[in-house]
Amino acid sequence: RGRPVDGHCPGVTGKRLSAYVAAGVGSDHECVTAAEAREKLARGLYLLIREATNARNLDALLPVVTPANSRRVCFCTDDRTPVDLLGEGSVDHMVRRAIAAGSDPIDAIRMATLNAAEWFGLPHLGAIAPGRAASFFAFDDLARPEAKLVFARGVLVAEDGKLTAEGETALAEATGTGPADALGRCDVAWDAVRWDVPAKSHRVRVIGSLPDQLVTQHRVLPATVAGGLAVADPSCDVLKMMVIERHAGTGRHGVGFVQGFGFARGAIAGTVAHDHHNLVTIGADDLSMQSAARAAAANGGGLAVAVGERVIARLPLPVGGLMSDRPLAEVAAAYAEVVAAAKALGSPLADPFMAMSFMALEVIPSLKLTDHGLVDVDKFEVVDLFA
Asked: Each residue of 333-373: pLDDT tens digit?
């Protein structure tokens, strides 16, 4: 229909990449190596360099950008937490980082503005010119652009980091039928959820979580068995993980194990889980997982940390279980608390909740967990937990 098709093809190369591009896809934001980025640029894709909270690719991919190809490169954040948005910034943070790394300031600004507007077919954005929306910011230092004045559609809305105009903050009520009815609801059939895992063999498939990456490893490890049940083993950093369907109350759930979160005790849970956004929990024991999961599911969804029966931190996300209706600074402070509580369980990860949200994303290799069970993404099929 003449609209851009935004891509998502981690690790796709060679003839498979050519077929992907030939199907009409025009961009990709999943590159993690310079070689992958160069190949995708050579195939005609726009390269969207990502610097997210949990997937940081800017440093690895900046060397790919040259004066000859910079017009085919854009910046994006993918997923960035309120803490990072307040502390560092959004795409503007990437512009400053790129300039500090040696990029021409005009090229860096263009990759954040005009290039993205052109790729996504938004001719009213991306530049300061007649006929464009007058949304821009003024700054003092080209070597480090930091907003002093912010204009939105010609109106001054912020100065020196403070709002000067009232924005629209009211949360619209969900009405009618369809997905909007899911706002403020988390429908879990708790009685149908089975937390124990009868051991069928002495080897299990384990999701290998990698720091600062969305891709995972497909590991096969010895199962820790107690009383005929496969259980978490924090001593070797093997934790139990569950994904529970929360939108229709089906009771469907998948169970697996994950390595790389480092919890010595307790559990975390949340309703942010790309892209199905079911209820996910990871923990060192079943009781902690149940407590965290119930706390996260309460009041429409959110994030929670628990040790045994005690919930030690929680962030409600009443808008679809994904967003808050509270001011950004308040949400950032609460988010920092749940992350700190999760790290206090022993995790070395910068953000265990963001990492958990991608353990259930079944389109990024190699092994992920959904409410239908473990998915071998390389084979694109559901596989048994026991090997």
From this structure: 999 999 999 999 999 999 999 999 999 999 889 999 999 99
Measuring CA to CA, which residue among 209, 184, 172 is closest to residue 360?
Answer: 209
Per-residue model confidence as pLDDT tens digits over 132-173: 999 999 999 999 999 999 999 999 999 998 989 876 555 555
- Closest to 185 (Cα-Cα) out of 276, 253, 246: 246
Place of tokens 């990698």: 210
The set of long-range contacts for 250-253, using a CB threshold of 8 Å and a minimum separation of 24, is: 250/189, 250/192, 251/189, 251/191, 251/192, 251/193, 252/192, 252/371, 252/372, 253/192, 253/193, 253/194, 253/371
Find where tokens 């124990």 sit: 196
**Is the Cβ–Cβ distance between 356 and 303 less than 8 Å?**
no
The CB density around residue 212, as the number of other CB atoms within 10 Å, is 15
Closest by alpha carbon to 239, among 321, 342, 334? 342
Peptide bond preceding 275: is omega within 30 degrees of 0, i.e. cis? yes
Please answer whether residues 242 and 289 qualify as being in contact, where contact means their C-beta atoms are separated by less than 8 angstroms.
yes
